[in-house]
Each structure stands twice: as C-alpha cells, then as structure tokens.
C-alpha cells in the first residue's frame, strides 16, 4: 500500500497498443525510457526532535498534481461542523502532528501555504486550541459518490512483522528483492496527457519493450533477479501480504529489526486473491479476510502457489533508516497509526485532513475521528474509498485483517479555497 502507484492498465490489449506506440515514439527519438533511481532530496523536519521524512524510491505523487489544486464541487457539499459525528468528542490533537508532517509537502501549494504556516506557528497545541484552529481556518465538505449517495467502503492495512535473515537457508528461503536494474519506467504524461496511465513499467529485449516479469515468472526462475536479494524470510504467504501492505519490519536472527519500504513494482495490475477464492467457491464472501486466506493456504498447500501467482503484481523493496517513526506513505512522510489514511488522490487532495465516520472492524461500535490523507493504494479507487492505517502491533494486524466497513467522509479544505 505504501506509495504504490498504478502503472499497467487492466486491459492487456490496451497495454500492447500503447507499447507499440511507444516503440514508434522511441525510434523517432520523441520519448525516452529510464530506470528509476532513488531521489536524493529529503524533506526538512519540522523540529529538532522530529524524524526526517525521506521520499519513497518511486517518487511520491507530486502534491501540485493531485487534483491539480482544483476541487470538484460535484462530489463535495459544504456542511456545518455540527454535522460531523462526535466532532466535539474526538481529540484532534492525536492527528495534529500528522497534519504538520503533511504540511511539509502541502506548503508547496498556494491553496495550503497560508494555513500550513499558521498551523506551524501555533504555540498552544492542546485539544481545544487545535479544534478551534480547524473550525476557524477550514470548512468541512461531505464527500459524495457520483450518484449523490454518501456512503462508501473503508478497509485496513498495517505494517507487517516477519522473521528473516540476510542469508539464504532452508528455513529462510523466500527472498525480498530490491528494484531490478533492468526495470524501466516509460513516462507517458507529456506524450499522452489525456490518458489516466501516466507511466508504464517494462524491460528491454533487443529493441522491444516488453511487460516486466510477472510474479510467477520471478518466483519460478530465481536467476532472473539473482543478486538483488535484500532479505530472506521464512513464510511465502507472509511475504505475499507484505507486498500488499508495501512496507514492514523484519526481525533478524540476531534480534536486529530491519525496516523495509516500497521501492518499485513490476507494473502488472493487482488482483485480489480473496475475490478469486470467492469466485472459485473456496470461501464465502462474508468469511474472506487476511486471516481466513492464510488459514486456507495452510489447509491447501498444493493449491497455494497457483493462487498467489494469479496476482501478477510484484513489489520490490528497499531498506529504510532504523529511526523512522513509521513507514513512508505516498506523501513522502511517515504514517501515523490510527490517524493516517490512504485515499484516491483523483478525488481527495493528498495531504488533506479527513473526518471519518465508520465503525470498528466487525462491530457496530462507532469509529469517528480526524484522519490525514497521507497514502494511496492500487486498490483504493473512488470518491468514498479509503484504507485505514493501523500500525505495526499484533492488534494492528488483527484489526486491519478484519476491517471492511461502511464509511462516510468529510474533507477539510482551507477557507481560502472558497474564494
């Protein structure tokens, strides 16, 4: 989930057509291919005690590009603060540091520059002062679907904890790979500005650009990425879910904890193995969760690898500094457990405060609180669609695996945006 971007269209024929077009453009010298490299520029911390944020290896979405600072009024309705459930009961102080981290990026945009400067200048940051600041400088807008309804879906994600080693052994035999040297990024934004596909992933074979290797090809032929092994882990199902989450922690045999984060992907579309199990009649829809899928794998080891390979998407990782406060999201800042949210940046400004009204996983107990939109996800598409970041504890893993709740959302926008 962390810092993932969508590169290949789900329609394979369309991908082939674009690839053919690219070959023509490349041969004409009108477009170039490049292999992604990690940016060297880092974001300055807010204070001497704050951990510096480092951008993902695959650059985060340019804040000036998300929604292009233009809010779509068709999907937003201005409301009063009293409309927000439990607004007076939630403690916004718990999301305040996350918002200030967002301002490291938001302050680059004219829409947010003034309010971020004002937020950074606040000396008293108790619950009352922060709530008063938000009510004074922001207007809540309820997010609506295209048909005017106001209910959507929220799921959960977390930072997995796996056991691993820096060396291969019969116990630790499943590798996490760093980004391959032959993985190419083809930028489409300038050549095809009207397409939703801003870039493609692929590889060169002679003079041809081909889709990069699938999950099955990578796992069935270890020689393809030989030498790019970062760490070896003991459980292939845990590794699969680590790739879905996009970031995690590995406990080595000597007790050292290594933090890893998203570096890149192979460009293939994501397929939900949960949906596949439902379609095949292996699990009923109401039962599907991360825990249920893992249990199914333990009970059906002969079918497991074929199931995993139906999701052709593959994630590459990099090692992160040990002192990071949390995993790095698409905004380029550490995520905050229980207060960071992954959203669709085509519909919600990345970095914006979001008020969320939902329920605790598998219960009717209200879960209403201020969140900050700091991440994106390959499966997070739509106006009222979000992913709740739970953290890295065992409880976080349990809650994230169970969460599939109805939700309502309000985006808080600076009052100057109304002018």
TrEMBL record:
Top-level EC class as recorded in UniProt: lyase
UniProt keyword list: Cell wall biogenesis/degradation, Lyase
Stretch list, region Disordered: 37-69
Segments forming domain Lytic transglycosylase MltA: 161-318
EC number annotated for this UniProt entry: 4.2.2.n1
Compositionally biased intervals (Polar residues): 37-52
Domain of life according to the entry: Bacteria
InterPro entries for the chain: 3D_dom, MltA, MltA_B, RlpA-like_sf
BP GO annotations: cell wall organization; peptidoglycan catabolic process; peptidoglycan turnover
Pfam families registered for this protein in UniProt: 3D, MltA
Gene Ontology MF terms in the entry: hydrolase activity, hydrolyzing O-glycosyl compounds; peptidoglycan lytic transglycosylase activity
Catalysed reactions listed for this entry: Exolytic cleavage of the (1->4)-beta-glycosidic linkage between N-acetylmuramic acid (MurNAc) and N-acetylglucosamine (GlcNAc) residues in peptidoglycan, from either the reducing or the non-reducing ends of the peptidoglycan chains, with concomitant formation of a 1,6-anhydrobond in the MurNAc residue
GO cellular component: outer membrane
Entries under PANTHER family matching the protein: MEMBRANE-BOUND LYTIC MUREIN TRANSGLYCOSYLASE A (PTHR30124)
Protein name: peptidoglycan lytic exotransglycosylase
Organism: Nitrosomonas stercoris
Taxonomic lineage from the root: Bacteria, Pseudomonadati, Pseudomonadota, Betaproteobacteria, Nitrosomonadales
């Amino acid at each position: 989930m962390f810092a993932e971007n969508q590169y290949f269209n789900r329609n394979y024929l369309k991908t082939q057509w674009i690839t053919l077009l690219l070959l023509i453009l490349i041969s004409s010298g009108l477009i170039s291919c490049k292999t992604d490299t990690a940016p060297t520029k880092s974001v300055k911390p807010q204070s001497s005690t704050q951990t510096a944020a480092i951008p993902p290896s695959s650059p985060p979405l340019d804040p000036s590009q998300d929604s292009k600072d233009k809010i779509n009024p068709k999907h937003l309705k201005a409301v009063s603060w009293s409309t927000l459930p439990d607004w007076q009961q939630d403690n916004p102080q718990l999301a305040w540091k996350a918002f200030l981290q967002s301002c490291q990026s938001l302050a680059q945009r004219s829409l947010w520059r003034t309010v971020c400067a004002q937020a950074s200048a606040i000396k008293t940051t108790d619950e009352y002062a922060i709530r008063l600041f938000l009510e004074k400088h922001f207007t809540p807008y309820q997010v609506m679907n295209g048909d005017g309804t106001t209910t959507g879906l929220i799921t959960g994600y977390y930072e997995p904890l796996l056991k691993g080693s820096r060396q291969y052994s019969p116990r630790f035999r499943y590798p996490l790979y760093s980004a391959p040297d032959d993985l190419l990024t083809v930028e489409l934004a300038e050549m095809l500005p009207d397409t939703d596909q801003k870039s493609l992933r692929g590889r060169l074979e002679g003079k041809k650009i081909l889709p990069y290797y699938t999950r099955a090809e990578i796992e069935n032929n270890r020689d393809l990425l030989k030498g790019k092994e970062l760490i070896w882990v003991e459980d292939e199902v845990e590794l699969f879910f680590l790739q879905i989450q996009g970031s995690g922690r590995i406990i080595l045999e000597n007790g050292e904890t290594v933090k890893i984060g998203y570096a890149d992907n192979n460009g293939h579309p994501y397929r939900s193995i949960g949906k596949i199990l439902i379609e095949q009649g292996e699990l009923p829809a109401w039962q599907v969760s991360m825990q249920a899928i893992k249990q199914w794998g333990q009970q059906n080891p002969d079918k497991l690898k074929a199931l995993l390979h139906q999701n052709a998407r593959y994630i590459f990782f990099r090692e992160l500094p040990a002192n990071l406060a949390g995993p790095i999201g698409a905004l380029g800042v550490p995520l905050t457990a229980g207060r960071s949210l992954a959203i669709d940046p085509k519909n919600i400004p990345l970095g914006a405060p979001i008020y969320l009204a939902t329920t605790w996983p598998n219960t009717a107990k209200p879960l209403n609180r201020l969140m900050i939109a700091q991440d994106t996800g390959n499966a997070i598409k739509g106006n009222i669609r979000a992913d709740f970041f739970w953290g890295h504890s065992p409880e976080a893993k349990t809650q994230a695996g169970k969460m599939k709740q109805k939700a309502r959302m309000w985006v808080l926008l600076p009052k100057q945006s109304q002018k």
